[in-house]
């Protein structure tokens, strides 16, 4: 995925939209069935939080990127993910899922990830987030959003997600480009750097929060009726696109994450799923007192088109 | 200039021929000895020093209708100098009465008015004269200066003192014309606009913004501050000057000079951390970060306000009240990129329309780093715009080869990052005065810096600049788009002063009037 960053940045700038471009009071909200409503509420709330967490990830990457063009690109992506979260909140609001200034509550696994991002993400090398984020995005783009649009008939939802998906396609384009860029170079050097980072306790904590989050998300979407295979097929796209070039394949982070993707998809692998599922359950008992206060970047979320 | 130095009797002859040339000139357009463009600190200071040397056939062309330059134009709430007033004033006209360490713009403007009165400069002023270009006539040794809507002005020597930061710049944001509310640029403040109860956005977080935000926060209903890149901010030791201090300075001017010198060297010391990457740089960054931590309790906002470039790479700011202003309930900092301006406000990339009554552009100035301030045509029709298209270059920031008898104040590579602009301006002025004296005394048609001297000077300059923090990778108004540094001087003010102390004749070509030409000119054909 060799792209011209300069052209891409110009395209990003030329493709902006705002919440005010959408008529949130247009007819169609009534198309949500009573049966859908509670599940949709849980689904949207997770989705919106993933966007928001992705936003924070891009903020960290904007710090780390050395190329000024990439830096600016990530600064935009940070804001765009925030826009997605805002738009999804506006949809929830439209569907009567949010009171006045209510912000949906993040589940405990999200809380842990937010905690980790807030304290650690700025210290992670670019490769880590640069490799994880495309995985989250293929899953989001290829499975969650597609599934949502199959289930929901509200035209306003379709309008919003058309814009969101357009943004995502650019995120993915840049994401895979960077994944390959980072696989460029001597394998042993990449390997050494990789080993240095992967053994970093901060990252190990990060992984320990990421694994159960993924499984919890899978359970949540499954509860909504998304066939698991669809999720795995979408995740497989990561391996397909990321592994197209030798550079991409040489990136040890790509190797780690795509292998992990396979593990997640392989429900028969008890060695992986039993402990991780246990972690999901365990985190339910995670003492809330140990959580740090919600960072203030979370309070920037809004469903309002104008402020 | 060895050709000139030998002429012993030249001085008398020169002034005789000068007088003679002026008689027929009355029938033609009059030719001034010196035209100065701009009535800010530089232009006025040059006029004062020229007159002290007996050169008085001067006009100051000023596009505005008052003197003061920067301090006439920058009257926004909170406007003040960020170099102590005792240092930000002329050494030859110290003011014992500064009311505070860092005076506000009105007090600085008063000081400038006081200079005009004390040195009787009013008679030289030609207000509402906007210079649109100028051309050198080699045969006559005269610059023709074009003035918008007025007759051309002719002068043997020109001092271009039109200010490095005189032309307000608006950001390149789409839709800027579609905004339905009020827009104000910091350097063109409209005092009649009532901010009470208004929702206001400030775009920019540079030197002007950090002064405007605290002052405006007190007046408005809500203030939104849009930041692209945070600046390094140091605490500033502001103080009101006690009366005994003023009395002391008045009674004992030497004590003020001593204080001024102490301030000067304190700022010079900053250069070691600001200009070059040294342990002092780390130290200053540490101080700035501790200051930020002290004033901004929230970790996320602190992150937004922490610069990612080395201190000194962009202009270093000082303020005690900017961070606290951002912490107010009616002020909020935004770091989302701006997508566009629309009828009701600003749309940023997080998808929200920030609706406001007024947008304040604290977005600085168009700095001509890669173009002449206005079209300037030198010998053989060469154009300064062409020569500077890849970055402005001069000899000691004052002269440019091929443009004889033209002197620039605060020209290329004359900017300080750590000290008063006036510490650089004064040696320039004295150097310019020496140049003009040479032209008039030896009755030169042209005094032109040699290309090779200029090239050598710039080669050294750029070599030294490459090692500075300015050239360490951040984008700033110091650099051209290609990263060429055409604005800053890579060294201490003391070094700069030393380089300007002597007018180096050998670096110039001097051309006198040939007798044949002179007679022709006298016959007026
Ligand atoms: C807000 C602000 C704060 C500053 N604070 C400091 C500080 O604390 N310390 C410091 O050292 N420096 C400071 N500076 C830098 C400041 O610009 C210089 O210190 C100094 O005032 C420059 O003086 P000048 O005479 O060269 O230019 P100016 O003061 O800008 O004067 C130039 C004059 O030329 C006129 N002019 C421009 N173009 C034309 C034309 N084409 N025809 C006719 N006239 C023209 C202008 O109208 C203006 O009057 C500050 C600058 C700004 C903008
Ligand atoms: Fe997104
Ligand atoms: Fe995305």
TrEMBL record, chain A:
Source species, domain of life: Bacteria
InterPro entries, per database record: Ferritin-like_SF
Record protein name field: Reductase protein
Automatic annotation (TrEMBL), chain B:
Q: What organism does this protein naturally occur in?
A: Salinisphaera shabanensis E1L3A
Question: What top-level branch of life does the organism fall under?
Answer: Bacteria
Name used for this protein in its record:
Nitric-oxide synthase bacterial protein
Compositional bias (Low complexity):
8-17
Residue ranges, annotated region (Disordered): 1-24
Kindly report, in one word, the top-level EC class recorded for this enzyme: oxidoreductase
Single GO term (MF): nitric-oxide synthase activity
Which keywords are on file for this protein? FAD, Flavoprotein, Oxidoreductase
Which EC number(s) are documented for this chain?
A: 1.14.13.39
